[in-house]
Specification:
CATH topology of chain B: ABC transporter involved in vitamin B12 uptake, BtuC
CATH topology of one domain in chain C: ABC transporter involved in vitamin B12 uptake, BtuC
Strand content of chain C: under 5%
Largest sheet of chain C: 2 strands, antiparallel
Shape of chain C: globular
Strand content of chain B: under 5%
Low-confidence stretches of chain B: none
Order of helices and strands of chain C: EHHHHHHHHHHHHHHHE
CATH class of chain B: Mainly Alpha
Helix content of chain C: 55-70%
Largest interface: B-C, 55 and 54 residues
Oligomer: heterotrimer
Strand order of the largest sheet of chain B: 1-2
Chains: A alpha/beta (616), B mainly alpha (318), C mainly alpha (388)
Shape of chain B: globular
Radius of gyration of chain B: 20 Å
Helix content of chain B: over 70%
Structural class of chain C: mainly alpha
Order of helices and strands of chain B: HHHHHEHEHHHHHHH
């Protein structure tokens, strides 16, 4: 069908769309055709303008210039409502659902024709619709009880119910397990076959290659390329065009699903990172990009692919011109003093006591899997990454460690002290640093200035006998602001005025000022741009030299880039803990995240995340 | 045996006091029921309106004054509802358009409403008005005991019997109700569904305000039948508390209101029987009861059943 | 709305807010004029009379000061609670219970040395007020009870307790058929700033005495407690760690909890403080002004304090300013109550209107209003978070 269908009249044509935010040029003169029955992928980095473009199409934003043609006739969308009526619907990343209402209520909200409602009839209609597109979900269930995948299906049903002709998916797989993602793709295909036009926004190359009929690449607000399925170049070429840099990638035999890298090429599984630089790549690696973004491109597309992540590690090793076995970091002296010897990245044969240790921790939480028998330990000099799809107990785990929740049973110790006792009497220096996921909600006071925000966790450093030393606090805040390159660099400005990246830099700086010996970082780079991501990573790497880091992340690449050990969580259990060098395990991460591999049954007791020597 | 008998004899008057207490509960409960249901509708739409007390005051004054001059309780009732609706519109204006805090606006509304009603009502103090008259419903009123209690009342009471069912139907079984509830839970989702949550919230504010006004009007036209300073005397706040007690459901609201009114009325009966309860304690009773009501409902966990977006403003426009 | 959009300001306004307040007050007075007109008075003339009576005479300063003392103390505490996002509107009840606590001390320890009486009564007043407020705080933090309703109910209950005592065991049999308590011993009475009798006895001429009395009127040494409380509060907020924690927890309770600040502890502490201040205010009013327990100790200062606290948002100087303004307005209303024969409820009406208009006017403080479609002047919100 493809050859003919694409010749036909497009369902929707975007013509010369431009959109600016202040000085930022989000979209510039974009022209795009969208056809019925086809899945179009919009590929681009964060900040390339994909979401802005689609918000224009969905009526949430009005373009500064350009027009939208619907079946050849120009239309103007003043609001999402206009777009709805024109048959354009968008599945947002943040679902717009009402937790306390049923699936049928949610789907038919705003769609019900009759004045009165008949719940049974509503459920029947929704069930019918769901069956037609293979979107299996119980129409009587309350949204609050559903998984993320099911909620997404409800979102899609909402659009199908109002007979949208175009469905826009904004990074739909971000919240899904690999299995759910696969089901989504099947449904998407089914929708396309039934005549819907589909736009699929993503920056994950394998997904895009797998599902789309045509691909448009956005870069810096402009469409730089377009391909038909038949003549899509290789993954490496796509990445190059998307990033706009000459960078070649050794793509695997077949693009693996991101989270299920079962068939990652064997060539990169070599243990010694120094030698992991792939043959034939050395010439093509550009000279190291100057600081502060030595490998910024990766941060852009953090979930690009597993290969990329591993490639990145090797690149870094190569960059230093020396194997990472001998880290050239200032804090190194300390490590040697304590009798720590580094053997290969993360191979820290440490005699040091763990800074964080959990054993047999259980916690029951209503409406959630809670935590079951969690055991792990983090020693100084290590980064342990907890991987998993959000909502598998990571939040509860972090809350217990940070003293915000009490475990039902089990032992949690921080720096050798019991967690409750530790938090009741936390040292002002050298304690626990916490970088929360929700930085605006739980790490900052938007309506206070930067000094006050800086003081939030460091207040004890600047007070004596209960009297605050604001003068010194201001000085230190200014120093942190300039050291961490926070913009605007004015300590009097309200935190509200800071962008996410700058706020995160401030928070990271704040947490590090106390020289914590244990750091908990929860999705620290979520939503940040390339430069900020790289800066945060760099800070964590440096911090590792003096502390143990627990990194909770849903981003596989982040885990692979930073961590020494990986733990995968599923339904409140730790499926497995293993070294980053344990290639066999690394390849199974996707399956573990999806729950396809059951939790390791052997006892963790005491040994926690025992480093397995296989990596060397 | 002998002891037991005297025991029962002792208790008998108190048991017999239940029936008149129940009848009193219906008439004391009715204004609170209207106000509770009104506030419930408003809160279901996502707007916290703490101005119930002030709205009831203004509603009852308007109803009284109109009825006093025209002699028509029905017209007075309508005006009472409309006056309280105007007050709630003020709340809507401050919160929805001017983005003011819903809590502060509600408090201001109470301070203003109580003040202005007392001020404007000064000339009417101790004046009497022709209020609603009771009539009995054939057949139903002949049910022993309960018939007299429930079916020998005025029209407003009969309306209050129907109202919870009407509201339940409105909220649960109509398109309008679905959108209204959704606006209280997640206005963004409502907007995404192509409905204006702004309009839905306005609807909930105005409808709720009208019902609260009916409660105030009942107080002036059927319960007191005269005007007095501070006529509402905290009933508005009781209604706010009862909404929490009712977990935002009309059915439970009825239960809460009659339980509240019943216990209060019963204790007054008991006092009338000669049990030495100091009058100041009796005067305290409704407030202590309100605290109790609130306490009981908070035992089930913080704000269970509350609309998820209750009390939050959302930006106008975009 | 259509064509217009609101943009949140990232920097607080200074002078703009003065304009907002001024406009809001002007609108409020205009509405009051309208209300006077409705009842057949000359609206503009009435408002003029109100302002002249409230602020226009030398003798009104003393009266303003007299009223300002309890309002200031109460609103200081209430503002602290508001800062923590605790809607304590129970200052009225705490005021009453504090008064009762002080009176209890006076009535029960008659034999105490004179120098101990006043400190003891003040401490008792503060403690009882604090406990009354702490009760609501406990209910809120332990069981999640809505503090707005609970503090309000505790107000009503407190007043009924007052009635119970004053019509019961605390009633002075010597006072014929009035329900009042016995007069306090001199040691428990807070003196006036300008005590004419005292100075007359000490050889000051009657003319001089009257001259000073004009200014100070019935104002009493409770003023000192206001200054002290204001200074302490200012120190607490500006310099102390506790003050910082209150500010931070009030701005974002979740972030504060994450940062290891105990929100529960702060709420209970601040509520106790508020109750203590209100209790102090109540007893001072009772002791200095009435010199015995009377039912008309209940003046609604607690509610005025809520209005002041919200208007001033915990800026101490602003609290002082708004206290004086509202005290003046109250005094002005008392004037026209007599002159025009209107209800005392007019004062509440005025306060309610001021609160509503200022609240609405706050929009212009918190947001910028600009035409839709045009780029926002403050570009700081550009490509943040997932901005693409």
């Amino acid at each position: 069908m493809s050859a003919d269908a694409c010749k036909g009249k497009p369902l929707i044509r975007l013509e010369g769309i431009s959109k600016h935010f202040g000085k930022v040029r989000a979209n510039h003169d974009i022209t795009l055709d969208i056809r019925a029955g086809r899945i179009k992928a919009l590929l681009g980095e964060n900040g390339a303008g994909k979401s802005t473009l689609m918000s224009v199409l969905a009526g949430r934003l009005q373009p500064d210039a350009g027009r939208i043609l619907l079946g050849g006739n120009p239309v103007f969308f003043r609001s999402p409502r206009d777009a709805h009526q024109a048959g354009i619907g968008m599945v947002y990343q943040h679902f717009m659902l009402i937790d306390s209402m049923s699936v049928a209520d949610n789907v038919l909200l705003g769609q019900e024709k009759s004045l009165t409602l008949n719940p049974r009839d509503m459920q029947r209609r929704v069930a019918e619709l769901a069956r037609r597109y293979g979107l299996d979900v119980d129409p009587a269930a309350k949204i609050g009880t559903l998984s993320m995948g099911e909620r997404q299906r409800v979102e899609i049903l909402k659009l199908l119910c109002r007979e949208s002709r175009l469905l826009i998916f904004d990074e739909p797989t971000a919240v899904l397990t690999p299995g759910e993602a696969r089901r989504l793709f099947v449904s998407m295909r089914s929708m396309a076959e039934q005549g819907k036009a589909i736009v699929f926004i993503s920056h994950k190359l394998p997904e895009v290659l797998e599902i789309s009929d045509e691909i448009s690449i956005l870069r810096r607000g402009e469409v730089v390329d377009g391909f038909e399925r038949a003549n899509v170049p290789g993954e490496a070429e796509l990445a190059r065009r998307m990033l706009g840099r000459d960078l070649s990638l050794n793509s695997g035999p077949e693009a693996a699903h991101v989270a299920a890298p079962a068939n990652a090429p064997a060539s990169i599984s070599r243990a010694d990172p120094a030698e992991a630089v792939l043959p034939g790549l050395e010439e093509e690696i550009p000279p190291p990009v100057p600081e502060p973004r030595p490998m910024g491109w990766l941060g852009t597309d953090r979930q690009l692919s597993l290969e990329a992540a591993i490639y990145n590690r090797s690149q870094r090793a190569g960059e230093n011109g020396q194997p990472e076995a001998e880290p050239a970091v200032p804090g190194d002296g300390n490590l040697n003093i304590e009798g720590v010897k580094r053997r290969g990245r993360g191979k820290l044969v440490a005699e040091t006591e763990p800074v964080l240790a959990l054993a047999g921790v259980n916690c029951r939480v209503p409406d959630s899997a809670g935590l079951t028998d969690i055991a792990l330990s983090v020693a100084k000099g290590q980064i342990l990454a907890i991987l998993g799809v959000a909502g598998n107990g990571q939040k509860e785990l972090v809350e217990i460690i940070c003293g915000l929740r009490r475990a039902d049973s089990g032992r949690v110790s921080i720096l050798g002290r019991d967690v409750r006792e530790f938090h009741a009497n936390q040292p002002s220096r050298g304690g626990l640093g916490y970088i929360p996921e929700d930085r605006r909600g739980s790490a900052a006071c938007p309506d206070l200035n930067l000094v006050d925000n800086f003081l939030l966790t460091t207040r004890k450093l600047f007070s004596r006998w209960g009297i605050m030393d604001y003068k010194r606090a201001r000085q230190v805040t200014r120093r942190v602001i300039s050291e961490h390159n926070v913009q605007p660099d004015d300590s009097k400005v309200l935190a509200r005025a800071l962008s996410g990246g700058n706020l995160q830099k401030l928070i990271v700086g704040r947490e590090l000022v106390r020289n914590p010996r244990c750091i908990v970082a929860e999705n620290p780079t979520q939503g940040l741009d390339v430069a900020a991501t790289e800066e945060v990573w760099q800070r964590l790497r440096v911090a590792r030299e003096t502390s143990g880091v627990l990194l909770v992340t849903g981003d596989l690449n982040e885990g692979l880039t930073l961590a020494d050990y990986l733990a995968v969580m599923y339904r409140g259990r730790i499926v497995d803990i293993f070294s980053i060098h344990n290639q066999a395990k690394v390849e199974q991460i996707g399956l573990m995240m999806a729950g396809a591999i059951a939790a390791r049954q052997d006892a963790y007791g005491g040994q926690g995340c025992a480093p397995d020597p296989a990596g060397d | 045996m002998e002891v037991e008998k005297t025991f029962i004899e002792l208790l008998l008057p108190y048991i017999l006091a239940l029936a008149p207490a129940l009848a009193a509960a219906v008439s004391t409960g009715t204004p609170i029921l209207f106000a509770t249901l009104g506030e419930l509708v408003t809160e279901r739409g996502g707007v916290l309106n703490l101005g119930v007390e002030g709205m009831m005051m203004v509603g009852s004054l308007a109803a009284f004054v109109i009825c006093y001059h025209t002699g028509s309780p029905w017209f007075g009732l309508l005006c009472g509802g409309a006056a309280a609706m105007a007050m709630s519109a003020l709340h809507g204006l401050v919160c929805m358009v001017f983005q003011g805090s819903q809590v502060v606006s509600g408090l201001a509304l109470t301070i203003f409403g109580v003040g202005v009603a007392n001020y404007l009502g000064t000339p009417y103090i101790q004046q009497k008005a022709e209020g609603f008259t009771t009539f009995s419903i054939p057949l139903l009123s002949s049910i022993p005991l309960l018939g007299r209690v429930f079916f020998q009342q005025d029209a407003m009471v009969y309306l209050s019997y129907l109202l919870p069912f009407l509201l339940w139907f409105l909220l649960r079984r109509t398109r309008f109700g679905l959108a209204l509830r959704a606006s209280g839970e997640n206005p963004e989702a409502v907007r995404a569904a192509g409905i204006s949550p702004f309009k839905m919230r306005w609807a909930s504010i105005l409808l709720g305000g009208f019902l609260v006004g009916l409660g105030g009007a009942y107080l002036a036209l059927a319960f007191m039948r005269m005007w007095a300073d501070n006529l509402v005397a905290g009933r508005g706040w009781i209604a706010v508390a009862l909404v929490i007690f009712a977990f935002w459901r009309p059915g439970r609201a009825v239960l809460g209101v009659y339980l509240f009114a019943g216990v209060t009325a019963y204790l007054f009966r008991v006092q009338a029987l000669g049990v030495p309860i100091p009058s100041s304690i009796m005067a305290m009773l409704p407030y202590v009861m309100t605290l109790l009501v609130l306490f009981v409902s908070s035992l089930r966990g913080k704000g269970s059943g509350a609309p998820a977006d209750l009390g939050n403003n959302f930006k106008v426009g975009d | 709305m259509n064509g217009w959009q609101l943009i949140r300001r990232t920097e607080p306004r200074e002078w703009g807010s003065v304009a907002v307040f001024a406009t809001a007050f002007a609108v409020s007075l205009a509405i009051c004029a309208l209300l006077l007109q409705v009842q057949g008075h000359n609206g503009a003339g009435g408002v003029w009379l109100l302002l002249k009576g409230g602020f226009g005479h030398v003798y009104s300063y003393g009266e303003i000061l007299l009223k300002a003392i309890p309002i200031f103390l109460c609103s200081l505490g209430v503002a602290l609670c508001f800062r923590l996002q605790v809607w304590n509107i129970g200052a009225e009840g705490q005021y009453v219970i504090g008064t009762l606590g002080g009176c209890w001390f006076v009535l029960n320890f008659p034999g105490l040395p004179a120098w101990l009486v006043l400190p003891g009564t003040l401490a008792a007043a503060m403690l009882s007020g604090g406990i009354w407020a702490g009760l609501a705080a406990l209910l809120r933090q332990r069981w999640g009870m809505n503090e707005i309703i609970s503090t309000l109910m505790l107000n009503y209950i407190g007043i009924e307790i007052l009635n119970h005592l004053i019509y019961g065991s605390w009633r002075d049999p010597a006072a014929m058929n009035q329900a009042v308590g016995p007069y306090f011993p001199p040691a428990a009475v807070i003196g006036r700033i300008w005590d004419s009798d005292f100075w007359l006895k000490h050889g000051v001429s009657e003319g001089t005495a009257d001259f000073f009395f004009q200014f100070f009127g019935r104002a009493h040494w409770g003023v000192l407690s206001c200054i002290l409380a204001g200074l302490l509060c200012s120190f607490l907020l500006r310099k102390s760690r506790l003050g910082y924690e209150i500010t931070a927890a009030g701005s974002n309770p979740r972030a504060a909890r994450t940062a290891g600040i105990s929100y529960n502890r702060l709420v209970i502490l601040v509520m106790f403080l508020c109750g203590a201040l209100a209790g102090l205010a109540g007893f001072q009013e009772c002791s200095a002004n009435l010199e015995r327990l009377e039912p008309n100790i209940v003046m609604g200062y607690g509610y005025t304090a809520v209005v002041v606290a919200w208007l001033a948002r915990l800026r101490i100087m602003r609290i002082a300013l708004f206290t004086l303004v509202l005290a003046g307005l109250r005094f002005g209303v008392e004037n026209i109550e007599q002159d025009l024969q209107i209800s005392h409820a007019f004062a509440n009406t005025l306060e309610g209107i001021i609160l509503i208009t200022v609240l609405a006017g706050q929009l212009f403080n918190d947001y910028k209003i600009s035409r839709k479609g045009r780029p926002a002047a403050s570009g700081a919100t550009g490509g943040e978070e997932r901005g693409s």
